[in-house]
Design goal:
The protein has 163 residues and is mostly beta strands. It has a single domain (2-162), classed as Metal Binding Protein, Guanine Nucleotide Exchange Factor, Chain A. Helices cover 13% and strands 44% of the residues. The chain is built from three helices and twelve strands. The strands form two sheets. Strands 1, 2, 3, 5, 6, 7, 8, 9, 10 and 12 form a ten-stranded mixed beta sheet that branches. The longest helix has 11 residues, at 145-155.
Amino acid sequence: MLQFTRFLYTKHPANNLPSLDLFAGLYKLMIKTSCECQNIKVECDSKLLSRIARQCNCNYCKASQAEYLSDSDSNVTFEITDFESYRLSQNGYPIAKLHECNNYGVILVTFKVEGQLYCVINAKALRVNGYTLDGTLKDYSNESNEQRLSRRKNNWFKAVQVT
């Protein structure tokens, strides 16, 4: 279910008109969705109308055909409803945790640094509409651990898991 939330904004001091950035930020998109069996539920407040999904180049993500969205200015809350149909796995870099539904594959990927949980969501598995897919596979294999942590911290959603 998609729900728009209206936010107040101030006008630009130079010309008393909203700038494009302010106008684009006028609405946030509230996404409440789940995998089709509703095992992993995700709630997200974001400006996803203008977001670009990316594909990871690792063999695991390529096989799952995941299309990941992220927004560092927004939050994601997720909940696992049936732990019998849920898998938490790792692939490649042990810091990232893949949250998978046994029926629908990778739903989101998380990592934790300095006590804060971050994530990207698989828009394809969650049936999120209104994003553009960047067709270039992203290869982060040459990143150092520090570069990887910094990139994720600066680009991924802040996340909270509800238990």
